[in-house]
Amino acid sequence: MLSTGEKKDTVKAMVRTCRLLRRMNQNNPTARRSESLYYEMLDIYYSRLALAREQKQFIAAHTVFFPAEILYAMDLVPMHSEVSTWMTALFLEYQSDMLAAGAELGLTPEICSAHRGLAGAFALQALPRPDVVLWTNLICDNTAKSGELLMKLNDCPGFFLDHPFQNTKIEEKYMINEITEMVRFLETKSGHKMNWDKLSEIISRTNHEINLLHEINELRKAVPSPFYNKDFLPLLTIDYMFPGQPEAIVYLEALRDEMQDMIRQGKGAAPREQYRLMTLFIPPMNLMGFLENLSRDYGAMSVVEPLFTLWKPGQLDPGHPLDSVVQKSFMIPETHNMYGPLGQETLNQIVTSARDYKVDGAVYWAHIGCRHTCAAVKLIKDTLNEIDIPLLTIDCDIIDPTISPESEIREKMERFFELLDDR
Amino acid sequence: MKALGIDIGSLNTKAVILTGGSAFTSSIVPSGDDAEKSARAAIGAAQHQVGLGNETDWFIVATGAGSKSLTFTQQQKSITTCVARGTNFIFPTARMVIDIGAESGAVLKINERGRLNDWASHDKCAAGTGIFLQQMAKLMQISIEEMSRLSMLAKARADITGTCAVFAESEVISHVHRQPPTPKEVIIAGIYYSVVTRIIGLCKRVNIEKEIAITGGVALNKGVVHMLETELGCSLLVPQLPQVIGALGAALIARENIEKGAAK
């Protein structure tokens, strides 16, 4: 185990890993093109970060659901802190070091591991030292309160972007003021000017990305499901890391085309689809391989994740880029479903998607560090039970595999499959 | 072909043989390190009771923690599925089952066919399980039976945590050693209440539905059953042999397989 004094160059290791995985995919005749493209996207992202560190370019670390399109438009190098922490944990099996470093900072296991790991990653200097830290209150108080610590760990300035709960005209205006102020802050700190034309282009491509995500969601309604369980994570990273980036559009188009081909051929992603599952909240990162194996071993497919993949309808207007950034922030699945009070709209969407996607059962990954989403379990369970959809709640941790071992989760899933078989 | 169910628990291994209609024979042996050996011992004891041996053609369904390691069974089923089936066989009107074993605590919702509709379990701590009660009895230097009897005499109860077995133990020690010491029955009532509140929490997670049965070894503890009945405000259905309900369910599933022709 590392102490906080030791360093590991995870960015370069990430680049090497992505390239290796991409080569392996390219040499595998059964691998899908979209898989290679996903690793290519990550390669581009982390190579840019590695280069930025070497050339001392301006790096802006940001938390989840931060509007990274602003950074791309200003030619700043974005570093998505949470995803970079997950990625290093997942690809480099580095989670125990990062969590241990978080513990050395006094962050106990009861605190969300995404934040423990994130602080640990910066303490270990596993992620490059940023020039600024940008954070928001999306979608939890942990994130809102983590920024100060990240600034301290990196000895750099920061900006807190306050996102309102409700989506009204007054709050949209407030949000525009917040972003305008943040742009001024970034211009002062980086010396880079906001390029509004570039932001418009990015918004146009972001709009295309969102439309592609809608198309993919529609295709996922097919029986059998043409969507692989392991593609959930790449799908999440699109807006987290690549808003309006051409490489993301290439990836999404390839994924959509592959799914259309599969539907035409009547093929599913599982050898024999048995259970169509709704995924609520987010499964532990270390279990992505396990979940893919569930499709092979049990025919269990995650066909919809209403809290994470179903975007609120709406089109962005490149002619009004700043308004579009704000509008998009309210369309993000996690923001409109899990930020603020749990609204009837969200419960309705869960019910509608259970029907539309022909769901047999739902699995709620109750991340023990995420108090506000765990508080919703009962209400969501009762709502699904009303339409005769059983819900399995699995207490787990998003990164820390010591909280719920794979064997324990497998056993619970097997019990749940028996329950579904018996119906 | 005969149906046989086996449940490998963490403390005891149970076998059930269906002997026709609603009759069955069961055996209980302590679980050892070797699940296969314990299972064979339990099966041997049950076979002996019905006068049949290995020369008989058996369809064996296994359940419980060690069931996957058995080499001689035809099928494995989860303990929740088996307890649901077994309870329905004994109490067809039961719609909820509280199952408390040596190292587990679960609440099951079942339908009129004995199929599982929902369940909730706690598996992060021994608090609320049979082992926890055994440990507490040892700490109080009394038998489980005496502890059960005393719990029903208590007029008050001590506050004992229901979330951590280790902390609960410390709290009990502090009650025993304080001056004047907390009366035994008050401590015991506190211990039982910590178990009961944990179980009722699980009941509420899946929504309480009557009638309610209780299975697993802890169902033999009259004090726990009494307190659960008081808190739930209803009588519980307690089978004569609550420890073997999982094995009974496994045997019933074995019989279903035989009837469906899956054994051929």
Protein traits:
heterodimer; A: 423 residues; alpha/beta; Rossmann fold; 2 domains; 4-stranded parallel beta sheet; 8 strands; 56% helix; globular; disordered N terminus; B: 264 residues; Nucleotidyltransferase, domain 5; 5-stranded mixed beta sheet; 8 helices; 10 strands
Question: Could you please describe the fold and organization of this structure?
Answer:
The complex is a heterodimer of chains A (423) and B (264). By secondary structure, chain A is of the alpha/beta class. Chain A contains 18 helices and 8 strands. In chain A, the strands form 2 sheets. Chain A has a 4-stranded parallel beta sheet, with helices on both faces. In chain A, strands 6-5-7-8 form a 4-stranded parallel beta sheet, with helices on both faces. In chain A, helix 4 (81-92) packs across helix 6. Chain A is globular. Residues 1-5 of chain A have low confidence and may be disordered. Chain B starts with a strand and ends with a helix. Chain B is of the alpha/beta class. In chain B, the strands form 2 sheets. In chain B, strands 3-2-1-4-5 form a 5-stranded mixed beta sheet. A 5-stranded mixed beta sheet of chain B has the order 8-7-6-9-10. The A-B interface holds A 378, 381-382, 385, 390-391, 393, 395, 408, 411, 414-415, 418-419, 422-423 and B 77-78, 80-81, 115-120, 123-124, 205, 207.
Compact summary:
The complex is a heterodimer of chains A (423) and B (264). Chain A is α/β, with parallel strands linked by helices and 423 residues long. Chain A has 18 helices and eight strands.
